[in-house]
Specification:
269 residues, alpha/beta, 10-stranded mixed sheet, 12 helices
Length: 269
Amino acid sequence: MALRTDENLIRNVIKKRPENSHKGTFGALQFYCGSKHMTGAPFLAITGALHCGVGLVYVSAKRSLRKILQARLAEPVFCKMKISKRATAFVVGCGSAKKARRVKKLLKQTKPTVIDADAINYLSKHKKKLLKKKCDVILTPHEMEMSRLTGKDVAFISQNRELCAVQAAKEFDATVVLKGHETVIATPDGKVYINTTGNSGLAKGGSGDVLAGMTGAFLAQGYTPENAAVIAVWLHGKAADELAEEVSMHGILPSMIPLQAAKILKRFE
């Protein structure tokens, strides 16, 4: 039976931040996101991560994209495309376009990885690479991406969201976050969560990028894929609910979500 998420569940799984700590205490998250024509996606994903407590953020990007992000972000360390040995988790795919093939190298390493958007589309044509992965994975598809990944019709997925998420989690031995109204989170061992937060204000380009970054932040801090996904999805939706009260569902921007999420996290400290 699926478990419906609520604030009490989040309170039970979220960790207290030790006072005697340093940036290394809270992990290092490396991003392989963005492309020449999609510079907003990595910005939103990185901002989502930074507001969720990760200690270090590494950004691997080509020069043209790097220059744009460096002008907007002061916190990340910008590095070459090489996989960092210091990273404790990875996010790949947000706005990556054809560069999403980078995911095939990440699947050969052992640190947990969030696979989103274009990286999912790439793997839908290279499923064997996903099946041979060496790392724990969180897949974050919307229904169209899930259709490409599984071969099931979008209408069928829409009518059988829980079933499709469970089957995909088992098939790919991954935690699956099937985004949409009442997002479904399914784990490889058969656990299912139905998220209870969020509203139609999240139906804007960029919302999923923020969620991917938030999820990666919790992974990097040492949360299990299951708990990282559950916390990030609930928090992402809760931030949208509170923003809807303040500015309306019509007016929510994805760029507003990270700071609102950080304010909600204050309640758990």
